[in-house]
Automatic annotation (TrEMBL), chain A:
Major location category of this protein: membrane
Protein name: Branched-chain amino acid ABC transporter permease
Membrane topology: Multi-pass membrane protein
Keyword field: Amino-acid transport, Cell membrane, Membrane, Transmembrane, Transmembrane helix, Transport
One GO term (biological process): amino acid transport
InterPro entries noted in UniProt: ABC_transp_permease (IPR001851), BCAA_transport_permease (IPR052157)
UniProt record similarity statement: Belongs to the binding-protein-dependent transport system permease family. LivHM subfamily.
GO cellular component: plasma membrane
UniProt-annotated location(s): Cell membrane
Provenance organism: Neoroseomonas soli
Entry GO MF terms: transmembrane transporter activity
Transmembrane segments: 28-50, 70-91, 103-125, 145-170, 191-219, 239-262, 269-289
Amino acid sequence: MDLGELASCLGSASCLVTQVSAGLTIGLLLFLVASGLTLIFGVLGLVNFAHGTLYMLGSYFALTAYGATGSFLVAMAAGALGVAVVGLLMERFLLSRIYGTDVLMQLLVCYAIILIVDDVVKIVWGGDFLKMDLPDAFRRPPIIIAGGIIPYYYVILFAITAVIAVVLAYGMGRTRFGRTVRAAAVNPGMVGALGINTAAIFAAVFGIGAMLAGLAGALSAPIRSVVPGAGVSILIESFIVTVIGGMGSIWGALIASLLIGFTRSFGSIGFPLFTEGMMFLMMALVLLLKPSGLAGKRQA
Amino acid sequence: MRTTLSWRGDMLVAALAFAALAVPAFALGMQSVLDFAVRFAIFGLLAMSLNLLIGTTGLVSFGHAAFFGSGAYAFGLLMQSGGWSVPMAILAAMAFTALLALVIGALCVRLSEIYFAFLTLAFQMLIHSIVISWVSLTGGDQGLMGGVPKPPFLGIDLGDGRHLAMFSAFCLLASVVALRQIVRSPFGAALRMLRDNPERAAFLGMSIFRYRLAAFVIAGTFAGLAGVLMSLYVSGAFPTFLYWTTSGEAIFMIMLGGITVFLGPLVGTAIFLVLNDRITNITEHHGLVMGSILLVLVLGLRKGLLDYIVDAWRERREKRA
C-alpha cells in the first residue's frame, strides 16, 4: 500500500497522463473481449466460458502470421478472422446443440473446449512464453504530453479499439442488423416467424464476439506474453466487467472496462498487491447495491 | 431410487464397505493400491460434496476447489505452526472453510444460475491469486513446502501409508453417510424443491437464500475435509489445488458418474482416476483426450453414465409393465 504515492501521482500532470493512457489502453482492450462475452450472453443466453481461450488463439494466430509475412495488418486480420472462423465452427458444431439446456451443459462443453484447445496450442506452438515483435513503423519514440510518457503503440491501440467501440455501438443501436439481433435476443420465436433465419443471426453474433476476442488477442500480442492457458485471467476480468456493466449491455461494458483499466493502472501505483482485490470489491459492491449492473435492465 | 435404509442401515453398509476395503488393503499393503485408495477418497469426497450443490440443490458451482484448496492450506499451515493435534487441526481447517463458504456463498447464492457459476469461478481465482501473491505465508507458486508434520494420535500414525489409506477411507465413508442423511432429511427435500420449483418454495414461505446458503456451506466444509486429506497425502499444499481446473475435474467426475444417483459421483471418481492414469501413461496430450471424451459424453448422452443407465433401465421396466 502506498497511497501517498498515489496522491502525489494524482497531483502531477506527467504521472496522470502516463497512467490515464495506460488505463485507457488496458480498458479498451478488455472492452473488446467483454463486449463479445456480453453480446453472446445477451442474444444467445449462453455463457461462453471459452471466451478467454478465443482471445489466446487470436494472439497465437497473429504471432504466426506476423512471423510469416512481417505485416502488422495481416497479423491483426489473421487474429480476428482466424478466430472468427474457429468461433463459427465451435458454434455450429458444438454450442448450437446445447442452446436452451442448463448451465451445467454449457459449462461442461466449454470446459472440454478449453482442455482441447489449450493442448492443441501446446502441440503447435509449444508451452513457452512467446511475444510478437513490433513492426518498425511502430518503433518510434514515445509521445510526451505534459511530461507524461505514452508509448507510440498505445496510441495505435487506442485508435483501433476506439473505432471498433464506436462501430459496435452504432451497429447494435442503429442498423437493421443490430435491431434484428436485439429483437432475436428478446423473442427469437417471433423473429423466426417473420421469416428471419435466427440460427444465422445466432451464428453471426457468436462469430462477431469471437472476432472481437481474437482481435483483442492479436492487438495485445506485442505487449503481453502469450502462453497456453493465458485466457483465464482475461475471462475473469471480462466477467467482472459484465457484472459491473450489466449483462447484455454494450455501454455498460464500455464504462466498466474503463473503470477496470483505471483501477489497474492507478492501482499499480497506489496498491499494487490489492488491485485484483479492488476489482472484486467493486464487483461485490455492484452485486449488493445494484445486482442488474450499472447499465443493465435484466435482473441478475 | 428410495430404499428403506435408516441411518443405522447406512452406518452398517458403510462399516461393511470399510471392512471389505480396509482388510485386504491392510493385509496387502501394496503401495499402488494404497495410493489409489487415498486418491479415491480425496476426489470422491470432493465430487460427492459438489454434487450436494449441483445434483441436489441445482446450484452449478464452478469454484468448488476454492474450499478444497483452502482446507489443504489451512490444515498444512496449522500443522506447521506446531502445537496442534491432527484431529483438532482437521476440525479447525473445516471450520475455516465453512466460514469462507459462508462469506462467498452469501454473495453468490442470491444470483441467477449463470451468475452463480461465473461468480464462484471468479472468487476461486481471487483466492488463487491471493495464495500466489502472499508468498511469506503460503510459499506462492512453489506451494507450502517443508512437509506437514503428522504426530500420531489414538494409535493412528498418518505418516504410514496404510494408516493414511484407512483414515481416508473412514473419512470418506463417514462423510458419505452424513451426506446421505442430509439428502434424505426434510432439509434435503427442501433443497430438491428449491431446485425443481423455487417459486413454489418461496410461496410456501421458505427462505431460498438460507437454504441455498446452508447447502453451500455444508458442501464447502466437506470439500475442505477432502482438502485436508490431500494435504496429508502430498504433505504440503499447492496452488493447483485452488486452480479452476481442479473445479472442472470435480464436475467432470460427477458427469462421468451421474448427478441423479446418490453414489454416482463416486463411480465417476473411480472412472476418472483410472482414465486419468491410463491416459497419462499413454500420451502427454492429456487435455486433448480427456476433453474429447467429455465432449462425446456431454453432447452424446447429455447426462452422466449412471443417469443414462438408470434411465434406460427404468424405461425398459416401464415398457414391460
